[in-house]
Design goal:
The strands form two sheets. The protein has a five-stranded mixed barrel. A five-stranded antiparallel beta sheet has the order 6-10-9-7-8, with no helix packed on it. It is 0% helix and 38% strand. The protein is built from no helices and ten strands.
Length: 133
């Protein structure tokens, strides 16, 4: 089930950790996997700029909704509502999650600012989460 139609987003500039050329799958120069950093937790890294979260204690601003192709490109950040996020390990519905070292969601009851609302997910799968205020 998808909930992203109710997501509030803003656009900021991608820093070098997000602005990665992904290209067309299978074409020379394309990244593998081709998803870039889409659906990962991001944080403010400069004036009007976001970058990849690298730990549970980072001040997460939201979840990246697109694939910026270079630093300085527009990064669409989901800041309020329900969004998918890439799981970094096993996550069950109701678990509080926080970013791991690569911006993926991992269970973290102490630092979690988002709550999983979908079915259980394993590492690399998408899980819908809602920001917990």
């Amino acid at each position: 089930m998808s909930y992203e139609e109710s997501l509030k987003s803003i656009s900021l500039d991608a820093d070098a950790s997000l602005g990665i050329y992904t290209g067309v799958p299978g074409q020379p120069g394309s990244a593998v996997p081709n998803s870039g950093m889409m659906y990962r937790f991001v944080k403010i890294t400069g004036a009007h700029q976001v970058g990849l979260c690298t730990g549970a204690t980072d001040r997460t601003v939201g979840i990246l909704q697109n694939k910026p192709q270079q630093p300085g490109a527009a990064a669409t950040v989901g800041i309020f509502g329900v969004s998918n996020v890439v799981a970094g390990g096993a996550i069950a519905a109701g678990d509080l999650v926080a970013p791991d070292a690569t911006g993926r969601a991992v269970t973290d009851a102490a630092n979690g600012k988002f709550q999983a609302i979908g079915i259980a997910a394993g590492a690399g799968e998408l899980v819908p989460v809602l920001r917990v205020l």
